[in-house]
């Protein structure tokens, strides 16, 4: 190497080392030195402090205002982060509680990247913001791992959800804010840097699941750390005993005046609706959904780095691997979910095998029925193992899953897919097939409580005009849509001339053909034109009548004995609920609220005079492994039990409610279930089949008290 080249390389190295020693963005511990810093309703102490590790920081007090913020801009031009992937910010929360911090990054073109994080109280840490949109959904799960985490000895708070987009060549500003604090919130900030690569994002998810399917980094009382411990805990005797003094189906003989028909039925007596057992006794249905062994499946293909010690996909473990594809463009629940196809592993079933070897399935069924009865449950709810019902130890329900190549309609919600078009003859045929399949082996079984049809259909859309979503969606449909043709025919019969409809709706409509085009934009109801809401309401009722009548008639043809338990409403309209009440024996609602009465219109149901069954409810927390806290969250395991007791007690005291079913038996997988990536702690038992002791004891006590309420 010649002397000139050596000198040039030395100078380049010196320059690079010097550049590396200078913060890439700014330093809020000494803000005057680098970037321009503007304080908006934020006060700086002016005194540099040093954290326990010696790093310089400075206090910033966010005042009580709408949105106090710190704005950092380049001293000259714009920042070029085109070779960077992460923004790192040294920070510490000076408060005794978590503080919400928003980070907004702007580019010169007006685009934004935004993240919101909860900064916990405690020692200093590094906040990492990926410089691109990301979310736990992209990693295959609904909720990401808890933060902060130990990233190679460094406390790191990763923003797992980032929204927006940026031109990284021209970054114009960084905004650090606390949204609308009610009192002064103080945070300490230090240096801001950028870094290439997504190492932090990868490390946050790496090795989060141990060989048993548990969150590897967490600790809780029921966590398993060895096969021996798993077998011991799994085979532990069931505590508690089934309720005594009941009939064979769990009914209460001490409630008098009820009819004996040989089948479950409903009856109203002394102003109270009741389910009645085949022997003629009062029955308040306390059920559990998804009592199955295959709920522990989670995709592993493409994200093997998230799992520690996965068993080999051969030999005895091959039975617990499988492959599937859950990509569904019409289903909102699946949108944005990564790792949603390919090879999966069933952690729950594998743990059952570890507990009971080759006899694991029979052993699980016996143990599970023992537990449910000891914990005060009397019904096996939807989506459960059929063999549990066939054991004739507890009554059970069946689901009629209508599926086929029939037309559909969008209501604008479409979380589980578009609405079936009940005017399509192919829907009628599909319903017939589904009913025949559902009742093939249970038509004459007195232990069958009844049938649900479908689940959480999109009867309404989203937003303030959501009630009318199905009507607006019908008119927006394809010109060949049978539902659309039926709606237009109804309008033509009422208005006769298109000009009459045009005046009533306040729209320009030159001919009836103008309605019959794909993508017709129907007007939202408004006060100036009340006929719009009236016509939409009439259509919604006709649509729901057609759906529920079709299903009810098919059930009655093939099984005249058992109850039609409704369609498990999640979203609904008054028209859909009224139609359900007309054609079903029971109206079922999936209620995710603190009390059942907060999940549906109780006054309307009372006026309709039909019994109500809560098809789903739960309370979740994040202190037992899975990252999610369910639809209705509480702080910890103890509060789960308290919330359960409050809910079922309120249900049993309501004269219109005849049962409540918990969702679900087992915790969801840490990395997300196959269907849609849900990964919440909402189970009675964990992924290891170990019961959550404190919670199930609270459940058992609450269920026993419900029996006492039900006798009145």
Fold topology:
Elements: H1 3-20, E1 26-27, E2 36-40, E3 42-50, E4 56-62, E5 69-73, E6 86-93, E7 99-107, E8 112-119, E9 125-130, E10 149-151, E11 154-158, E12 162-164, E13 171-177, E14 185-195, H2 199-205, H3 227-234, E15 265-269, E16 272-276, E17 282-283, E18 285-288, E19 297-299, E20 321-325, E21 341-346, H4 347-356, H5 360-374, E22 379-380, H6 386-390, E23 396-400, E24 408-409, E25 419-420, H7 425-438, E26 448-453, H8 469-476, H9 482-495, H10 498-505, H11 530-558, E27 563-564, H12 574-583, E28 587-590, H13 602-608, E29 612-617, H14 637-653, E30 657-662, H15 693-710
Parallel strand pairs: 9-11, 18-22, 18-30, 23-26, 26-27, 28-29, 29-30
Antiparallel strand pairs: 1-14, 2-5, 3-4, 4-14, 5-13, 6-9, 6-14, 7-8, 7-13, 8-12, 10-11, 15-16, 16-17, 19-21, 20-21, 24-25
Helix pairs in contact: 3-4, 4-5, 7-11, 11-12, 14-15
Pfam families: Agarase_CBM
Signal peptide: 1-26
InterPro entries: Agarase_CBM, GH
